[in-house]
Queue: 2 jobs
Job 1
Amino acid sequence: MELYLDSADLKEIENAFQLGFLAGLTTTPTFMHREGVTDLDAMIVKLSKIVPVLQIEALGDTAEDILKDAERQLALGLDPAKTVFKIPVSLEGVRACKLLRDRGMMVNVHLVYTIQQAYMAMAAGASYICVLAGRMQDQGYDAIKLIGECVEMVNFYGSDAKVMFSSVRNAEHVRNALDLGCHTITVPWKIMKVLTENSFTALGTQQFVEHTRLITVTVGEATNGVNPTVSTDTTLADAIVKMTEYGFGCVTVVNADGSVKGVFTDGDLRRYLSSEGRDVLGKKIGDFEYKMPVSIEADALLDAASALFKKTSVDTILVTEGGKAVGMLDIQDLK
């Protein structure tokens, strides 16, 4: 099924065609008016240089008028092999379709609401027969049934016409088109962007990224290089200032020789304030008792750190090199 973009927004068009596989662009004077276009011809020429195939309106009261409008636009420099003229279905419209086709131009007969209109478009040699699904449904018609009938008719009679599913309002319309075996669909960018989205896909991708990171990145590479440390003779008040400056919930306490004495956490602070009051702020940080901190060497893989987080139920692990503190690994650093 050919995939077209339905738009007149230049930014959307540039983004969409970076995909590299869109068949072309459908647009309308209504779209261009909505985008504030004041020079229709200049815009058409610009679009023709961006997209593989451009489908634009050819208008007129009679078949001859429609033909003249198509020829006028081709004279702007459009390539007939890359331009499809959209003609609203009517008696003059299908006559114009035949005139254009006899001259080697491609035609999309659109605004089709009945199978009889679709048949007349096919009989006139239309390159595309376009049903506006969303607009039909807005008016209470069974657009999906009609499009299915059009596909069946074209296939049954061996016509070269392609049935186009247009006026796409949601991703389900794209599924409808696929189910019906439509030959072509034209989709707004806001809907096209979500066609690859699925929550399970996102979850699976996230897991792949996280697990790859766990077995390829070392602890040292994952730490941000920030290592708030204080000596044992630092007051608790000054240690709190250091924690605040670095935005950490803990600080590493080191002896004079650089070896680790322990890690003082904001949890420790709350416990000491509760038991000893504000006077505790004047104590030296080295005066407190410390358990051996949970630590890991910088050259270990994050997978080992993940296992250590699960085993110890801590949120932060001390990172060391040769027994000396070089940083802190937060559990969020695993992601």
Job 2
Amino acid sequence: MKQSVDLHSFHEKLDRNNLGPLWASIHDLNTIEPKARPIPYLWKRELIEKHLEEAEDLLQVGDGADRRAVFLINPGMKDLIPYGWGGATHTLYAAVQAVKPGEIAPAHRHTTTALRFIMKGEGGSGRVNGEKIPFEPGDYLITPTWTWHDHTNQGEETIMWMDCLDVPFTLFMNVCFTEFYPEKQQELLVPDDYSSKRYQGGMVRPISDRSPSIAPLGRYKWELTQKGLDGLSEFEPDPFDGYAIEYINPSTGKDANNRIGARMQKLPPKFFGKAHRHVHSNVYHVFKGSGYTVMNGVKFEWSEGDFFVIPPWVWHEHVNLSETEDALLFSTNDLPIMEAFDFERKEEYRENGGSQIITEVFVPIEE
């Protein structure tokens, strides 16, 4: 839209009076398609762990620090105060947390909903709403909104896990509350690992859970996740995601965490996924293997321990170049939020046989 000097001056006057001209901004406010603030990005494991090791020397969990965690800040979110809203994407916060032997991360609860994926280390456990839940690498755990939770390490090595919360979403909505438990750890109300033992049968549930509840199962064991992937692997892989399963709440059939979805996917050897895009965003952690993901023509090479994000409406495809080894990708998403508001949409890439042309290779910060 062409602007005369007088019209431009009028726009400036509107701005000074905290008003705006719709005629000049309508296509910025009602976009033709989503224009995400976060950008495709990747963080290397070595960089994150280096900073976590430094934090281990500088602070003690439970003594002035509730948590020792380094969170991912998307460069596209970095200008938001405070701390880029903790945004790996516009809705999802992701971090790597470390707990040393003997430490206790004190109990608290908050409006933000949270989940954890155990990356490495033995001897860890958490308490969630009165249940002590042991965990080991590959396990997926949930602490839904307003549930008491604390963590401890009773082993002999540092334990590390991925945290994911909907911090940017709750900050934007201005709905976040936090409360601290009067003691370091909450009181135990049920036997240890109670919910996992109640669901040892897999796809059967106690009749008392016929009525929906927010967290009937707190721990999703790696061994069962692996069995699920093995079963799918007897068939042809999905052309976009390989073999992928999602964690569900057995009392509802919906996502295990009510506002954040989570999946584990296996890319078999020589898997070349086709490109597609969708409105929901993803945060990926490379649990095993190596490969690359192409996002909007840019190649992001990843290996075990790395993290990368796929913002809304970004073309993407996954590739595993290994001839012998699977690649395992754990991911979180905001699909439950998108579906709740009927925002979700997806599209397949139709050009070049479904594969993007690589125009650039992303260079990560190494330090």
